[in-house]
Amino acid sequence: MPTAAFISRSYPIGATVYPHGVNFCVFSKNCTALELLLFDDVDVTRPSRVIRFDPQHNKTFYYWHLFVPGLRAGQLYGYRAYGPFQPHDGFRFDPGKVLLDPYGRGVMVSDHYDRDAATRPGDNCARAMKSVVVDPRAYDWEGDVALEYPYSGTVIYELHVGGFTQHPSSGVSRPGTYLGLIEKIPYLKSLGVTTIELLPVQQFDDQDVAAPLKNYWGYNPIGFFAPHRGYCSRPTDPLGPIDEFRDMVKACHRAGLEVMLDVVFNHTAEGDEFGPTLSFRGLENRAYYMLEADQACYANYTGCGNTFNGNHSIARRLIIDCLRCWVEEMHVDGFRFDLAAVLSRDEWGQPLKSPQTLWTIESDPILAGTKIIAEAWDAAGLYQVGSFIGHRWAEWNGQFRDDVRRFVKSDRAVVPKLAARLTASPDLYPQPDREPNRSINFVTCHDGFTLNDLVSYDFKHNVANGQRNADGPDTNFSWNCGGETSALVEGPTIDPAIETLRQRQIKNLLAILFLSQGTPMLLMGDEVRRTQRGNNNAYCQDNELSWFDWRDTERHTDLLRFVRGLIHFTQSRSLFQRERFWIHTPQHDSLTLTWHGAHLSHPDWSDDSHSLAFSLHDPLGGDHLHIILNAYWEPLTFELPPLPVDQRWHRLLDTAQPAPDDFTPPDQAQPLEEFRYRAESRSVVVLSAQTFNL
Question: How far from chain centre, in Å, is Cα 73?
């Protein structure tokens, strides 16, 4: 009989380090036998030790657990699960495959890792990923705590950890890593952003596309709890990724930057029924995945081959435990949930009126101080922007993206929609107690054109992805600014008129983004015209096509100065930090919003209108702005509101002006002589009422 110190337990799930050894626990309802494999090195062809679980002593309900004395953090391990291989019954056990621990805090990846070896029959021991035993207590946080910025004071910067510093021009000592990102914190601070949102850093499989391409974005996780090893500067150190990730978070917090994760709980890297057996499939296929009626095929609401069964009790527990791990042990500040609408589907794929997993995430006390943001749609047509459940969830506002793009390119019948987007989309979010900044506003994100490409290409150019340009969205609301010669100026041009217009359109889009009520999100490199050469689906391009070329900060210094000034201006004005809708302001609040057209108080809401102006007056905060948006292809003269005798309108921003007059800090702005303003074609103007010394 083992002593009390060596008795195995069914909780916590995963590998837990104790003074005398490690407790392993994993869920499998239908396996007939289970083995723990211990490895001395990631490249070995055989485990150094194989320990079979005794169902009588090492199993409680459907949890298999085993205590191994003498083991420590850094130990490599995996599982072999025996059981029926009967796909039409939903069983896919394969004892020839080394399985990752679904709760593994670390994953070791050999240079000899081979995804195909996990797909073919036979043993894949020498070419498999291995889990790593991690002791999360073995780190000095030095008093670090989450920052918990309110949405009203947040500016999000979406970036790719590898691509941010991988380019040779980055000048960092460890390019493409968590530590490389630390070296660029001063740049992020100077930009004025408050929060970085990292594309997936949960361990993913970069081999699920045809060589020589790689899965660059990382939206194919296989280790939900483990930081991605590919972003670690010490790839052979079993504990390197977890330590370096925490170094990055701690450094960001010290600089006043929040760290959010883009998390993927809607599918895994195991793909469809022809995919590899890496972890979940080989342990309990029917629990972790949604299956079609015959159970041999996977339901595919994600467009990625399978759908994680997020409302099954076992999968739901894993999701909650995982989020808690990233908050408690890794100190992250929040999450953006990829294809979050999938988590509102039941085990058979039907939408739920009250999805328990989403409600549990919202109400969990450990997650209460974090930001939770939903991409409120999935790949099978479930679209929940404006109707996503809960009181705490924020949403990516895809309508903002589309309507702002359409207005700036002068589409018809957009002005009334634009007015709603400028004011945090009350048409989508009519709840009177909802904070307007829970609308996450964006014009571009990782998925689609960059801002430069949005104004430089009429069509996607994805041939390099190897899918004959069939991948990626066809509807982009983009315009290459070529007018009648559009077909001749797709992409880079030496035509100065077109280049000037493209620069102005970029500033127009950025100005509307940051002047709108809601939480703005900026895509990595848009502030310096990063281009993907027209590729709007660069998920498989781990090369200079996707990386941040730091020479752009020198090529486009005027745009960078414009963006910095714009962000610092909006972040310093209480008007843009309000936690109530501008147009839902109670009577006792002194803020007023007034819509205008070229004539005061006469906005043109017609289908043929391409302009809009509005005034924001907040005497308590000291702000009085008049904003003009002219997407018409000719100049328009706008009447300006009258002011007290000791005040004049001062021009802060005019995207038609050459730098540095395109943006002027308030304390340097010059007064206007008249109460009218000529807004040039396709331009945005911001005027501020300020005291004028006669």
Answer: 31
pLDDT at 585: 58
CA nearest 524: which of 176, 197, 213? 197
Distance linking the first and last C-alpha atoms of the chain: 95
With beta carbons less than 8 A apart as the criterion, state whether 196 and 159 touch. Answer: yes
Nearest-angstrom CA–CA distance, 546 and 389: 34
How does DSSP classify residue 3? -
Local structure of residue 60 (DSSP, 8 states): E
Over residues 159-196, the pLDDT tens digits come to: 999 999 999 999 999 999 999 999 999 999 999 999 99
Q: Is the pLDDT of residue 589 over 80?
A: no
Q: Report how far residue 365's alpha carbon sits from residue 78's, in angstroms, rounded to the nearest whole number.
A: 32
Tokens of 410: 């002068």
Which stretch of DSSP H or E encloses residue 419?
helix 415-422
Q: What is the pTM (predicted TM-score) of this model?
A: 0.96
So which residues are the catalytic ones?
338, 375
Spacing of C-alpha 485 from chain mean position: 36
CATH architecture of 4-132: Sandwich (2.60)
Per-residue confidence at 1, pLDDT binned at 50, 70, 90? Answer: very low
Q: How far apart are CA 167 and CA 548, in angstroms?
A: 6
Nearest to 39 by CA among 68, 66, 77: 77
Q: What is the DSSP letter of 652?
A: E
Please give the structure tokens belonging to residue 660: 């540095």
Any idea where the domains of the chain sit in the sequence?
4-132
Burial class of residue 674 (count of CB atoms within 10 Å of its CB; 0-12, 13-18, 19+): exposed
Whole-angstrom Cα distance, residue 539 to residue 78? 29
Quick one: average pLDDT of 537-557?
A: 98
CA–CA separation, 397 and 380 (whole Å):
18
pLDDT in tens, 682-692: 999 999 999 98
Measured CA to CA, the distance from residue 326 to residue 342 in angstroms comes to 21
Angle between helices 557-571 and 496-515 (to 10 degrees): 20
